[in-house]
Amino acid sequence: MNTVGRGVDFLADVPGWSMIIALLVVGVVVGWLCEKLFARWAGRAQPRLFRGWGDTLLGSVHRMPIIWCAAAGVYLGVRVAGYVDPWRGLVGTAVSVTFIVTLVVVGMRLSTALISGFAKRAAGLQVSTTLVQNVVRLLLLIVGIALVLQNLGIDVTTIVAALGISGLAVALALQDTLGNLFAGMQIIMSRQIRPDDYVTLATGEEGTVTDIQARNTTIVTFPERNRVLVPNTIMASTVVTNYSLPHRRLFIRLPVGVSYDSNLEQVEAVTLDVARSVLRDVEGGLTDEDPFVRFEEFSDFSINFLLRVPVSQFTDQFVIRHELVKRLHERYGTEGIEIPFPIRTVYMRQRSVRGKRQVGQLDGASADGKLSRPQPPS
User: Which of 70, 83, 131, 226 could join 87 in a cystine, given CB atoms 3.0 to 4.6 angstroms apart?
Assistant: First the structure.
C-alpha cells in the first residue's frame, strides 16, 4: 500500500502535459508491441483458425493498434492529470472520433480484401470487385460520418431530411450516372458477364472484360491490348455474345474447299489427321475431344466443308487457325489434293436461226469463230 501511495503521489506531482505526453509514448510502444505479438500469433494460428485469411486480417488492422493505444494513453493522461471539463469532454470526443474513423478504415480495408478473396476463390462465380467494393466502402463511410456527427452533437436527422429533399434534384442532374450505376449492379447480379470473359457486342466492340465499374465496363481487345470503356447502360441493353459461358472451351470452324476431282474420303482422313497433330502441338488445343469434318455444299468451283476443332478458350483459336492453314496447305500439296481457284467455265452453244445471224456469233466473226476484217462497202 505504501508503494502504491508513493506512486500516486509521484503522479500527482508531475505536470499535466508531461503526464499526457508520457502516456502517449507508452501507448505508442504498447500498440506497436501488440501489433507485433498479434502478427506472430496470427501467423501460427492461420492454418487452423483463419484458414488463409490471416494476412487479410493483419493488413486490415495495420498500424491501427498504435493509434488506438496512443488515443487511449492521451485520454488516460487527461484523466490522471485531473483535467476537468471542457478539456476532458473535448479529449473524450476526439478519442471517440478517432476510434470511429479508424474502425471505418479497418472496415473498408477488410471488406475490400474479403470481396477480392471470395471473388478469386469462388470457382465459376467471378464478380466485378471494383463496383461492389466501392458500394461497400461508400456505405461504411456514410455510417462513419453519421456516427462522427452524432458524437460531435450534431443532429443527424436534420441532415438526413435535407438530403432527402435535395435528393430528387441530384437524381435528375445525375440521371445518366445513376443509370450506369444501376446497370452495372444489374450486370454483376445477373452473372451473365464476368471479369475475364471474352465478349462481342452488337455494336462491334469485342475483347476480354477486365472490370465492371460504377459508370462503365472495361474491355481489353485482343491482340491489340487496347482498352475500351463501354457505358453500363449500353452493356446492359445491347446484344452481347459471351464466348466464356456456359464454359470456356468451344469449337472453332475453318471453312475449306477442295476440287471436284478429289477423293472425299481421302480429304476427310487427311484433314482430321492434320487437325489432331495441330491440337497436340499447339498450346490451347484440346485432345480429349475429336475434331470433325462436315461437308456442306457443291459450290461453283469446289466442294466446301467445315473443319471443327476444340480449343480451350476463344483467344486460343487464332494461333490454331494459323497452324491449321499452313499444315493443311502443305499436306494437301503432298497428297495431291487440289484447292481450286475461283473459276467459272462458260459453255456457248451455237444454233442457226432462219433469217438471222447465228446466236453467239459476233459481228465480223466467221462461222468457225475467227474474227475477220470488215470489208469496205462497194
Answer: 83
Q: Which CATH number fits domain 250-335: 3.30.70.100, 3.40.50.880, 3.40.228.10, 3.90.1170.40?
A: 3.30.70.100
Please indicate whether residue 71 or residue 280 has the higher confidence score (pLDDT). 280
φ, ψ of residue 198 to 5 degrees: the values are -95, 120
The residues pairing with 309 across neighbouring beta strands, listed in sequence order, are: 252
* Domain 193-242 part of CATH 2.60.40.1180: no
Question: Which residue matches cell numbers 485469411?
Answer: 53
pTM, two decimals, is 0.58
pLDDT, tens digit (0-9, with 9 covering 90-100), for 111-122? 887 777 766 665
b/e map 179-199, b = 16+ CB within 10 Å: ebbebbbebbeeeebbbebbb
User: Could you report the per-residue pLDDT of 8-52, keeping only the tens digit for each?
Assistant: 454 454 566 777 788 778 888 888 888 888 777 766 655 555 555
The DSSP element (H or E) to which 158 belongs, if any, is helix 156-173
